[in-house]
Amino acid sequence: MSIKEIVYAALFAAIVGVLGMIPAIPLGFIPVPITAQTLGVMLAGCFLGKKTGLLSMALFIILVALGLPILSGGRGGVAVFAGPSAGYILSWPIAAFLIGYAVEKVWSKASIWKISIINTIFGVLLVSLIGAPVMAIMTNTSIWIGLIGAISFFPGDILKAIIAAFIAYQLKPISLIEEKHQNS
C-alpha cells in the first residue's frame, strides 16, 4: 500500500467524520436518524476503489471505537456498537469495498447513472439489509418491521447515491481507481 493510498484512506475517514457534523434528522418512528455520512461511504468506494475504500471505513470505525465523537450527534465509543445504529455503521466497510469493486469493473465505461446504480445497490440496499435487522435485534423488534422502517431512508439515500456518483465521475481523472487503471 502506497503512502498516497494511506493518506487518501485517512482523508475519506475524515470526510465521513465531517459529514457527521451535519445535524441528523430523527424520524421518531425508527431509532436510527438520517445522516449525511453514507454519502462519504459511497464516495470512498467510488473514488478510492475496493481496497482503499474498505481501509478508510475500517479506520473510521476504529476511530469511533476509540471514542472520537465523529458519528452524527457527536457520538463515539464502543457503546455505539451496542445500539440501534451498529449494523448500519458496521456495514460501511463492506459497502465501500463492494462499491469500489463494482466501480473498478465498469471504470473504463463508467457513467453517472452506472455509478448511481452501484451506489444504490451497495450503498443503500446492502447497508439497509445489514443495518435494519441489527437495529431490529437491538430494539427487540421484528426484523420485518425493521426492514419496513428502513424504507424511510431510501429517498434521501438514493439522492446521496446520485450525488456521490456525480462527484466521483467529475473527479474521475484524479481518483485512485483511475491511477490504478493507468498503471495496469
Automatic annotation (TrEMBL):
GO molecular-function term, one example from the UniProt record: biotin transmembrane transporter activity
GO cellular component: plasma membrane
Main location: membrane
Membrane-protein topology: Multi-pass membrane protein
Swiss-Prot/TrEMBL keywords: Cell membrane, Membrane, Transmembrane, Transmembrane helix, Transport
Name of a matching Pfam family: BioY
Compartment list: Cell membrane
Keyword Nucleus: no
Listed transmembrane segments: 6-32, 53-72, 78-103, 115-137, 143-169
InterPro entries: BioY
Transmembrane helix found in the keyword field: yes
Family: Belongs to the BioY family.
Protein name in UniProt: Biotin transporter
Organism: Virgibacillus dokdonensis
Gene expressing this chain: bioY_1
